[in-house]
Amino acid sequence: MSRGDMAKPLLGHRSMEGDPSITPAASRSIGVLGSGDFARSLAIRLVCSGFKVVVGSRNPKRKAGLFPSAAEVTFQAEAVKKTDVIFVAVFREHYSTLCDLADVLVGKILVDVSNNTEINHHKESNAEYLASLFPACTVVKGFNVVSAWTLQSGARDGNKQVLICSNNQEAKRTVAEIAQVMGFTPVDMGCMSSAREIENIPLRLLPAWKIPIFLALGLFLCFFTYNLIRQVIHPYIREQKNKLYKIPIEVVNTTLPCVAYVMLSLVYLPGVLAACSQLYYGTKYRRFPDWLDQWLQHRKQIGLLSFFCAALHAVYSLCLPMRRSHRYQLIETAVKQAVEKKMNIWVEEEVWRMEIYISVGIIALGLLSLLAITSLPSIANSLNWREFSFIQSTLGFIALVISTLHTLTYGWSRAFDENQYKFYLPPTYTLTLLVPCTVILAKVIFSLPCIQQRLLRIRRGWEKGRYVKFVLPSATGEYSSGETSSNV
After folding, report:
1. Mind listing the pLDDT tens digit for each residue in 226-269?
2. Which of these, 117, 120, 59, lies nearest to 92 by C-alpha position?
3. How far apart are the first and last CA of the chain?
4. Which of 144, 316, 407, 473 sits 20 to 30 Å CA-CA off 7?
5. Are 485 and 477 in contact (CB under 8 A)?
6. Burial (CB count within 10 angstroms: exposed 0-12, middle 13-18, buried 19+), residue 338
7. What does the DSSP assignment read for 358-372?
8. pTM value?
9. Which residue, 326, 319, 305, is CA-closest to 252?
């Protein structure tokens, strides 16, 4: 897939941007029924795009000052008579107030921009309900996924897509033309039955983030509980020491890097599983299981949450010396050294370990920052496919390797110290190494020439056990009698 294809809307519908049959018509008169925030923002954007705007209001004298001076504010009936395309910017509950305009609305194009307060709140969509009230009109659903702020500030500061659907192709084309002149990208969502789906889109809260967020919260709770047992409960039971003060900073700071490290490995684990599936079945055309397919689609969100946890870990680590408990511990250590008359406490191995540990951690955080920045659409669109793949795949794997080095230098030889096993539980960092090391080992195995070449052939269309016969033409231009078979 080319980089240009990746930049297209992933809605499975046709974008109307650049359609040669769509021609500018900025001189058209556009009607707006309503005087709320969205109606005002819509009127401002239409005026700035060169359209003649006529606003219909039940109280035009009181509402005239809210709209730009270039827009004509009049009674609803007058606005309808002067325009052929009318944006209905009123709530569903107020559609019935427009029934008095049924005679003058005949043959007009009504653009329904409304949204519901709940997903699937009504049996039929707002646009379908509006069409049932005015059967002599052509209703188009559109502009409901665009905010009032985006309309006022322009498409450069918000989502450029305008989802459009209608049973009338010509009406859809007219509204798409208007959206394109306004600086937006019209996307044809099909017939009016899609209106219900379009109206649900603005009501969904981070639909692509739910699974990654629950995954991150689940990992955080698991590691937090594990660290709480080791760092707080164990000292209290075995030594009767109160370590509850560690919970807000130290326990959380021990948990965050575990979550970030495991989440980063979970970005690349589904790719390993997908490669194993392709090698096992000998084809790329076999569909992945639904859970793996969903996992692959959520890799971006999982990676960003990994970076978020890593950034929080860096901030928490910088705040560790600021704690009052840390200052007390420094004074206590200094007093003990004075009593024991220790003049030199320098441990060369520990010094080198901490220097390497911090340096490698900074590099890992820097690479994660680069991955997070390039995942933003504005940055990703400026990269070609090779550049994007190199950063997200190659540098991402390097970030995982460096994070593993960061974890190993943190643990050093403590994995072999029996005092580190509280309630016979191993140190937390040893648990976090399981998934990342599995991913790294699998990547190393896949890089072997014999496996890499086979995987590359599969991804180029080769299938195990299937053959296609090609008949090669002779030098004279006629087909020869011999046949040459080749794997495809």
Report:
1. 999 999 999 999 999 999 999 999 999 999 999 999 999 999 99
2. 117
3. 19
4. 144
5. no
6. exposed
7. HHHHHHHHHHHHHHH
8. 0.75
9. 319
